[in-house]
Amino acid sequence: MTSPAAVREVAILREGDSPYLAVDPDGFRAHVRDNKQRALKPRLMSAKEAVERFVSDGDYLTYECNYLMRGPNEVVHEVIRQEKKDLWVAGKFTYVDVALLVDAGCVSRADCGFFLSAPPVERALKDGRLEVYEYSNVIMTLRLQAGAMGVPFLPVRSFGGTDGFDHSGAKLIVDPYTRLPITIVPALNPDVAIVHVHQSDIYGNARVFGTGTSDVESALASKKVIISAEELVDTAEIRRNPGATSIPYYAVDAVVHSPYGSYPGTCPGYYGSDPEGVFEVFRATMGDQVPAYLDKWVRPFETFGQMLEARVGKAKLEAMRARETAREGYSA
Amino acid sequence: MTRAEAFSEREVAMCTVARLVEDGRTYWAAGGGTPLYAVLLGKKLYAPDAQYVTEDGVIAPEPLLPFEPMMTMVASRAVHHALAWGTMNSAGVHAQLGHMDYGVLNTLQVDQHGNINSTFLGEYGGSGRRFGGPGGADTIAACCWRTILITDQERRKFVREVDFISSPGFLDGTPGARERAGLPRDTGPWRVVTPWAMYDYSERRLRLMARVPWVSVEEILAECEWKPLVAPEVAVLEPPSEEELQLLRTELDVRGQTTDAAGSWITWDGEKYVRA
Q1: Sheet strand arrangement including B188-193
Q2: Within 10 A of A225 (CB to CB), how many other CB atoms are there?
Q3: pTM value?
Q4: Cβ B68–A134 below 8 Å, yes or no?
Q5: Do the Cβ atoms of A181 and B180 come within 8 Å?
Q6: How far is B189 from chain A, CA to nearest CA, in Å?
């Protein structure tokens, strides 16, 4: 045993001054114990029910990829439709999503890896309706990695020396093993993650094909997990190739069947993006026309499916699918 | 190589970077646009065994060109026939391990020590203007062995100190500054390329090392708010060739979104290149 006299403190050389989501690995474990469904019971539900049950005002929300690339756009639309408030979002690897959510009145805080500082974001910052804390894309996904490992922080080899560091929750410490300076970043355990996947069974055993940001990390790190899936598959199909399972059921709280759920973006291997739709959301975001965009694409509809039928149509959706000719690797 | 009749300024920068691409090396190309096109151009014309990754974790893809608008990562055509599909964390960790020889990125603003700003112009939190943030560039600039930066040759982009360090250069320029900040040893900025010039570093300070034939050293320095060092002999860069431009225009930047967005055109007047 080490005697009390031998206890030494780790030196903190520098630290960022921004608020960060409280780090509480044991609290997270207790949440898992008390709330996660370990039985193989179906958790299939509509996007409406999933958002009503699992997204609360004030939650920290992370979504995977972005509005243009395998984004969980059906569930994002539902968050906007239900007028969730005061969310804190992980704004990584994102062009338009943060601006859409900010202008819809859903978001008051954002951790920044990368997102377009479009007019709605600028205005919210100036009006004090939005606070932004600085990270980078990889630092955000490494924070999620720490959250997904159940540890309170992770040492990282980037981010030190930047001004982002000074406006974050990072700290520079003396590594007790090498005695060299090392940056540590706080684990991120979001309240809710939304992840769009290629396939899932009704329990949430989910398969992601292709590249991505941090689908698995977000799902494991988050207290409440909504999976939206292009395709529902039988559990027998999951069992046929267990190595293809990206996210296991016990991390998942809701499964939403969401065909074309990434529209107007692409779901790689399944359908290409709709360039017209991509340009439209870009123009709306950069041209400060988000309310009109939401009034056209989100608010008039009860479901994403209704929107696809009314605004996009079967022929165009089929054309998006036909245009996606690079399909190797997008199956188990 | 065939002499080109006309090209745009940004095409010059991309062709210059393409010629820096080395066989047998791994490149982490930022996001989309200029860095990715420059690496692909170099790989296709000069260095077939150069490989690249992007921040979605793709390793050594054979992309189906051209890319669709905005779809330079994650999309199936962009990650086609890769050797591995990973995640943002796999890309970041592989860079931490030392697998990435070169990082290629672009920026709003660069300073005398190669620090990069893509977050905020003006006093942070004040009345200035916010931009997208570092994205993947912070990890690229921190962890790749050498960093190549692409930017436009404008006064406001070459400054004494950037308004906000989004991604690290040599920080305050003192020896060991990066290591003291916890960054990996022996890494850092290597080149800055603009449509007019190429810079290296001397004692961790930006130094003009080469220029295009149609612009003088004086003209370049006039477009630097903070004057860089100047190498004893400033080399003259080869202009883009017809072969490079052909590939760039037909397979890479086919919509001209990246190359034609800014800058003037350079044309061959029968004896020399002139800026239009």
Answers
A1: B51-53, B26-29, B102-106, B146-150, B188-193, B197-202, B205-211, B229-236
A2: 28
A3: 0.97
A4: no
A5: yes
A6: 14
